[in-house]
Structures are given as structure tokens and as C-alpha cells.
Amino acid sequence: MRRDADAHELIRLSAGAALVGVHSRTLRRWIDQGKLNGWRMASNQIRVSRAELLKLATPMASPSLGVAAGADDSAVGR
């Protein structure tokens, strides 16, 4: 974990988890996997960068609804 971050842009794990709709354990796992930087504060709490978290948790484009992947359009509605 890194210790040299600006405190004004860091948020608690619970707030970060709520922000992106995951459990705080997921954020801890992302930190352990190196996907997200964790910052240990003097109080021994872990904080994450809000901007970094939002960048990591950007939603992926979802496939169009209606026709299942691999389905042949000619078979739909017949």
C-alpha cells in the first residue's frame, strides 16, 4: 500500500464500495490484485482515490437486447 497520497481526494472503503455498487471486500481484493491503489492513513484505515475507483469501475458496453448472441435473425419470429 502507498502512503503518500493527497488526503482530499481519498475516500473510505465503505464510501467507495457504495459509490460503485460493490462490497468493501471487493475493493480490498482489487487493492491486493494491484488493480487499485490503497492508501494507509495514520489511523491505520485504508482509503482509495475516488477518481481512480471511478475510472476502474466504468461500466462496460452491454450487447444489444432482444436477440441472443449467436442466434440467426432469420429464425426470429418464425
Write the layout of secondary structure elements.
Blueprint: E1 10-12, H1 13-20, H2 24-32, E2 38-40, E3 46-49, H3 50-56
Antiparallel strand pairs: 1-3, 2-3
Helix pairs in contact: 1-2
Number of helical elements? 3
Give the helix/strand class: alpha+beta
Beta-strand proportion? 5-15%
Q: What strand line-up does the widest sheet have? A: 1-3-2
Q: What's the rounded overall pLDDT mean?
A: 80
Strand/helix succession: EHHEEH
Main beta sheet strand tally, sense and closure: 3 strands, antiparallel
What is the first-to-last residue Cα distance? 58 Å
Helix share, percent: 25-40%
Number of strands: 3
The poorly predicted ranges are none
- What integer value in Å does the Rg equal? 19 Å
Shape: elongated
Structure description:
- With 78 residues, the chain is α+β, with helices and mostly antiparallel strands.
- It is built from three helices and three strands; from the N terminus they run βααββα.
- It has a three-stranded antiparallel beta sheet with strand order 1-3-2.
Give the tags:
78 residues; alpha+beta; three-stranded antiparallel sheet; elongated
Concise description?
The protein is an alpha+beta fold. The protein contains 3 helices and 3 strands.
